[in-house]
Amino acid sequence: MSPRVGLNAERITQAAAEMADDIGIDNVTLAAVAKRFGVKDPSLYTHVRNLEDLRTRVALQGALEMTDRIGVAVAGRAGKDALVAFANAYRDYAREHPGRYAATQRKLDIEAIADAPGAVRSVQLTEALLRGYDLDGTELIDAGRLLRSTFHGYATLETGGGFNHSRETDGSWARILDALHLLLTQWPTSKQETPQ
Asked: Is Cytoplasm given among the entry's keywords (predicted)?
């Protein structure tokens, strides 16, 4: 059977996603993916526009996989239980699929992700979690940015070997989630008090 039989955008994206986990998203090239399939680079252009398109596809696949995992984890949970389930699913995905995860953190063309299920679901899950803490409006946006910054920063440092202290990382992670829960329950409001 010829290696190009069944070549399509989904198979190319999956191969690129697997390569990203192995060698990093920035090292995924069209030439490397073509070589994996035993074809010449031009054979891929029937299915993907260019390297940026391929990396965007990997990002969208990663976002969908991660949000599916988070959605299952938080189902039926609220408050701290939901926060811990969300955070653990996020961290586990980042550790298990570092290349796909890194792809989701790249700046992407807003039109390419506007209706992407993973991107939409990510916003929905984060908003649902934070509404459980009675946050809305700009407080919800700010708290969402705090969570993303914390989860991303921790996962990135951890997978990159940035924590060299003898304290195991799971213990620190649990304490960070305790602190985030406390902060979210006492979130400072930006609303001005009505004069009496």
From this structure: no
**Two tokens at 176?**
């960070």
Q: Give the model confidence (pLDDT) of 108-132 as tens digits.
A: 888 877 789 998 999 999 999 999 9
Please tell me the distance from the alpha carbon of residue 153 to that of residue 173, in angstroms, as a whole number. Answer: 12
pLDDT single digits (tens) 29-48: 999 999 999 999 999 999 99
Torsion, Cα 168 174 179 181, to 10 degrees, reads 160
User: Which of 7, 11, 17, 124 lies closest to 60 in space, CA to CA?
Assistant: 17
Q: How many CB atoms lie within 10 A of CB 194?
A: 5
Of 96, 177, 180, 87, the residue nearest 125 (C-alpha): 87
Report all structural domains of the chain as residue ranges with CATH numbers, in order of start.
Answer: 55-185 (1.10.357.10)
Instruction: Give the model confidence (pLDDT) of 162-190 as tens digits.
Output: 999 899 999 999 999 999 999 999 999 87
Residues 25-52, buried b or exposed e (16+ Cβ, 10 A)?
A: beebbbeebbeebeeeeebbeebbeeee
